[in-house]
Amino acid sequence: MDTHTYPLFLSPALPSDLINFIIQHCTSPTTLIICSDRAEFLSALTQDTATNPNNPITLHPNPPKTPHHPPVPKPHHPLLTSPIHTLAVARHIRTVFIPTVSHLRAFLSIFPTAAATGNKIPPPPPPTTTTTTTTTTTRKTPLLLVFNFLSLHRHTSEWSVQGLSSTAAALVEAGRRGGLRVVVAEQSGAGRCGGGLQALLGERVPVLSGGARRAAGLELRLQGPEGSGWARRTADVGRVLGRWFRFRDGEWGEVMGKRGS
Description:
With 261 residues, the chain is an alpha/beta fold. The protein is 41% helix and 11% strand. It has helices at residues 15-25, 38-51, 78-81, 83-90, 101-109, 114-120, 131-137, 149-153, 161-178, 197-201, 210-223, 237-241, and strands spanning 8-10, 31-34, 94-97, 143-147, 181-185, 204-206, 234-236, 246-248.
């Protein structure tokens, strides 16, 4: 697997960062897997756009309310200022909401090949021929993009080296089969640490999944203090996922432009 297609695990992002990233840097037949139900994600996105307008315009701290200086309206999030463009792009991005680890593995097991994926998702209309547009579209890459991969496993019996490894292997294989680059990111503030990429990768997970851990615990009790210690062993998330992913504390607007990393 070369450096242009190696799976990436990116730094956490807000829901609006995710949508902007897709609009700016993804192309058909990208598939977006959101690891939550639709209502939960839309609620997070709505709250995000309301509390983080992300508008570059600098507002006067105390604008005078005079005829010459009318009150400055509250800035709108960029996603809300170009809804037609957003909808046009969204039509050509396959979006799936996945509520559980079992559902995710089942979906990945039947993920279509590159030819089948291209047939199901129509390509977007050709862009206007301008210098700026041509430069931008050459950077777009079809992805298998997963949002909240770790959060889906956390607080379940699959929050373990075994569980994460099984799903990661299925994800990377699905991307290879579909001819898509695999990219994974968590929502900002997710997880026990609530920090950045290094905090997520530093979380400890048990080696064994819930069922195997219970069985190992029973064996440990039967064998006494000198028995097997597998039920107690843990590992860093980064060590577990490092077998499949390269980690990048990237800037969302630039990440796919630096394709050689």
